[in-house]
Design a protein that fits this description.
Blueprint lengths: L1 E3 L7 E3 L15 H42 L8 H43 L4 H23 L8
Antiparallel strand pairs: 1-2
Helix pairs in contact: 1-2, 1-3, 2-3
């Protein structure tokens, strides 16, 4: 049970199980939970690999934009509007690289969370740990269903 302070002297109690999505699957056995966690881990690994690949593509595009900008720097062979367009292209590709880095970091964090939950389910220290891990497993499974329904689009965190 979790508590939240609705009143200064009396914390209101809320049942943590109600916080879990009502549409989340109820697990009948460890096999269902393990398979869902394995699927969530596989999806998070795939998302991380895709994000890293897209980051490399964006970094390559930024490198090409930088070379185009520096190629005609000295002696000055370009007029100012052309140089401004090259600077704008470099700025856009740099912004894309920053965005892709953030996506990679989110994907890595999600993969680490999936690994942690899978490990907690596989090797629980206490019964409470197993229940907590099962709840987190339902959240990861719901995320995977959302991702599949959106066609591989990651939710914004």
């Amino acid at each position: 049970m979790t508590t939240t302070a609705h009143h200064a002297r009396r914390p209101a109690r809320r049942n943590a199980s109600r916080l879990v999505d009502a549409g989340a699957p109820r697990y009948n056995g460890d096999e269902d939970l393990t398979s869902d966690l394995s699927g969530a881990l596989a999806a998070s690994i795939t998302a991380r690999l895709d994000a890293e690949r897209e980051l490399r593509v964006a970094e390559t595009a930024r490198g090409h934009a930088a070379k185009a900008l520096e190629k005609n720097l000295w002696p000055m062979r370009l007029d100012e509007p052309t140089r401004a367009a090259l600077r704008a292209e470099y700025a856009a590709t740099d912004a894309e690289v920053q965005h892709r880095r953030a996506v990679v970091e989110r994907a890595r964090a999600l993969e680490q969370a999936a690994r942690t939950v899978q490990d907690a389910v596989a090797h629980p220290a206490r019964d409470d740990d197993r229940e907590t891990a099962a709840g987190l497993g339902r959240v990861l499974a719901a995320w995977q269903r959302f991702r599949d329904a959106q066609g591989g689009v990651q939710p914004a965190f």
